[in-house]
Each structure stands twice: as C-alpha cells, then as structure tokens.
Amino acid sequence: MSNNKFSEAQFFGQDFDGTIADTLKNPAWGYGVEAATNIAIGDTLKVTDIGKLRDQGGLQNRAPLEIIQLLRPKLNPEEQQLLCNKLVEAKLEVLMNQISLTWPEPMPGYITFIEILRKKQDAGEPINDIVISSGHKKFITKTFETTFGIKPPKIILAQEAIQRTATKYGEAMPVKPSPRLMVYAYNRWREQHSLPGLDEINPDDLPRMRYIGDDPIKDGQMAEVSGVQYYQINPDTSKQTWEHLSKIVQNRL
Predict the structure, then answer these.
(1) Distances from the Cα of 161 to the Cαs of 139, 176, 217, in angstroms?
(2) Out of 51, 88, 191, 197, which residue is the most buried by the measure of CB atoms under 10 Å away?
(3) Rounded to an integer, what distance in angstroms lies between the CA atom of residue 93 and that of residue 207?
C-alpha cells in the first residue's frame, strides 16, 4: 500500500480471546482455552500447579510466560522461556484439532464488523485490523479461516511475533498492559504502508487509532497509557459495541 495513504489510514487493534472469539467457552466435545491451559500445565509442570494458578485467580488473560513466571519464579529468564515454549506446545496440541465450523464462536456482532471492514479493504481503502494477543498466530489464523470463513488479518501480533520483536529490540518480552505492545503493533502498521518504524507512536497518528479488548486492565490500560481510544467488549453488550464500531468503519468516522 502506498505510504501517501498513511495519513488517511485507520488502525483497529483488537484482542482475540473474549473480544473476537469466545474461546473460553468449551466446545461440546472438548476444552476451551482455560481448560486447555490447565491440561498443559499438568503435562508440562505438575498437576498441583493447576491449583496454584487457581489460587491466584485462574487464567485471567495471562500470557503463557506470565503463567510460568508466576508458577516458577526462581528460574532464570532463559529457563522460564524454554518452559513457556513447552507449555504453549502442549496447549496448542489440545486446541488446534478442536477448531471447527462451530468453535470457537465469534463474539456477538463481530462478523458484521469484519465483513464490512474486509469489503472496505478489498475496495482499496486504507483500513487495517491488527490483532494484539497473548495467544498464537496459527490458532487465530485457523479460527478465521475455518470457523469464520474470513481472511485473517495481515498483522497478527501474537505470542511468537511478540517474542521475535522483543529479541530484535534487545528487550524482555512485554506483556499486557505494557505500552510497548502498542508500539510494536504501530510499527507493523507503518510497515504495511512502506514506512519505517519509530521508537514511539507519533501523536499525530493517535486520532486514527482504536483498540478493542475485553480486559479493562490488560487491554484498557495498555490503550490508555498509549493514548489510543479504547472500546470495551463485555459478553452482554458485545453486539452493541461491535455494531457501533461497524458504523465507524462503514462511515470512515
């Protein structure tokens, strides 16, 4: 996309679990994300660690590395990362084969939003949807392709990409609500428009940036500290929020 369109481009950053897809709901024949995480903890660490995590409030949108840091705080960062990789592998082994035409279901109102956005993109309008998630690209991609029947976003800043980007910058891997994640996503957005990355978000671009999430702390605070307008997805008002966002995309507000 030509960089002369960047001044008109819109950024719709989105969380995935509980925002785009209802992954916490168990499929009729298997396990949702939280249950799969518990299974992976039992396989990778110890069964007793499932109880330890539950005593700390459960999954709570924690990234895999956060879980390892919580349950194995005495390990050094390299050991924690290796254990995190094993945890992710075990979790995906449970989850990937469960993706189907019926699971995970999209959050109410999301399909209308993304269908309008894709039509705008296909017509050449500079609108970018960007996933920022502690989840995993192959799970997210397969959900879009198999369950939703829609092209996945071109930019998916998930666990693996976050780790690679942090290594590139020579810094520890950030987790929500760190504003560094928004900077990572912002620079991927700029790259889509053939522009170089920046150390921080240009304030002139903030009015064209929006972020949608389901966690007022991890998502909401990340957006607030970054200066990005935030939209909260709640189970009982998801349809209304996505309908409002659909109108924003439709009318290029």
Answers:
(1) 13, 14, 22
(2) 88
(3) 40
Whole-angstrom distance, CA of residue 253 vs CA of residue 246: 10
Number of domains in the chain: 2
Task: For residue 193, give its domain range.
Answer: 3-23+104-251
H or E stretch at 87: helix 77-95
- What pLDDT, on a 0 to 100 scale, did the predictor assign at position 1? 46
For residue 97, give both structure tokens.
Answer: 């084969």
Q: What is the bridge-based pairing of β-strands 10-14 and 229-232?
A: unpaired
**CATH classification at residue 19:** 3.40.50.1000
Q: Mean pLDDT throughout 8-22?
A: 97
Q: Which amino acid is at 1?
A: M
Length of the chain equals 253
90 and 214 co-located in one domain: no
Peptide linkage before 77 cis (omega within 30 of 0): no
pTM value?
0.92
Provide the token pair at 190: 């700029």
For 174-201, the pLDDT digits (tens) are: 999 999 999 999 999 999 999 999 999 9
